[in-house]
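Re: beginner question about structure tokens

> Can someone show what the tokenized structure looks like for a real chain? I only ever see the sequence side.

Sure, here's an example I had lying around. Input first:
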Amino acid sequence: MAQKEKKKSNKALIIIVSLVLIGALVFILGRMIYFSGRWYNNTLVNGIDLSGMTLEESKEELAKQYADYSMIIKARKDGSMDLKGADFDYVFEAGSQFDQLFTTQHQGFTLLYQGTAYNTEYQVNYNKDKLSKLLNQSVLVKGSNDYEISKPTAAKVAFSKNDNEYIIEGEDEGNLLKKDEFLTLVEESLQKGLFELDLTAEANKDVYESPSVKQDDQSIQEMLKAYNEKALRYVSWNLGQGVKEQITPKNIAKWIDYKNGKIVFDKEKIENFIEKICLKYKTVGKTRTILDHTGKEIEIVGGDYGWQIDYETMVKQAKKSLKKDIDPSLVNAYIENPTEENKRAITIKQKLKYLNEGFQRDFDNLTMDWDLDNYTEVDLGEQMIYVMRNGKVKFSCRTISGRPVEGRETPTGAFYVKEHREAYTLTGADYETPVTNWVRITWTGTGFHPATWQSWGSWSKDYYKTRGSHGCLNLQPADAKKIYDLVAYREAVFIHK
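And the corresponding structure tokens:
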């Protein structure tokens, strides 16, 4: 009994499976017959859904779609234009490629009848001259008040004042179209019957003029490295009393350039920078206010007393420091964390050299650079010399200064004692005179010395006008010895009228 039931069950299963297979076969055959003359489901041609349509129906649909054809062109910087087919005689026809696409889709046996997305060219016609003119006169090419055309700018290495280092400023792609490439791309899109052309798409980037250098280029990365290795440094000079002058990366950024793979510096700009520092602290030749022997304030103009930095040496120090190699790891550490400690690690210290020095430095009043209590005053109007000690007149005496004619006048200004000689020979165009107790005031020959040949019994404050020296300050022998003993080397001597 059980065996009979089992046979009945198997027979029923076979019947059911057979019926299912027959049904599936009928369905598949029906679908094959139905789609043998139609586009498969999910078929897109150039973005238009033609699923289930016959070839003729699809052509009618395309004709309807393109009856009033226009294409929106999207451009960079929110630019756009509506290219209307009627403006350049655009005529649409599906063409032979479309027919071939239909034939190709139906080749072979396709069980599931799955469609796909196709791209093809239609057989379209248009007036190319009109199209070219439309594009060349368009806002995307010529620009307008609302849509500015900008050329691409290359990526560059630039100094960041905020970051205190060199960085790469990225390129600006701009929106300047290549006219020929633009026309070609539009024509290709017209052949495909596209309703939208996106010029901002990555695939279409070549239609725009491109920057000559981009931030990812190896060349600019190498340039950045070179700039930071040379520009990220400090060069420091200590003037004392907490006053320093230094070259900073910001300064260097104004002098540096990159040519033929190498860093170069603008020598003239470096020299101008150093010159400003030297002039800033130079007191030689400046106007000073002193107290004369009566306690009255008088102005002293000119002379060679004071501070003067050695410009030539400082320029050499600066250029040498800029060329010096610094460990890249120290530079990178400063970039990552610009602390004072990391700054010191990339600081090159130099020592100032002076061509001339004063007695003291008052950075609030640079011309107060002499010993205010100990100096020598020469009053040419009174023909008197006053040696000041501890703010009072220690010694005074008469003098006979240079005769007031060209080449013989005693110079006025602030000078310093340059040498003492017990014996010295005065020389000129028509004389050679040995003297003792010579104290030099100027390098051109002015000094204190005895003049035994002068008629001191006839002295007056106007005597020098007829019997004056060749520029020196003539003294009586005893006074010359006193001056020789009193005034010190490099002491200030103020000569005024």
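Each token stands for a local structural state, so reading them left to right follows the chain. The chain has 14 helices and 26 strands.
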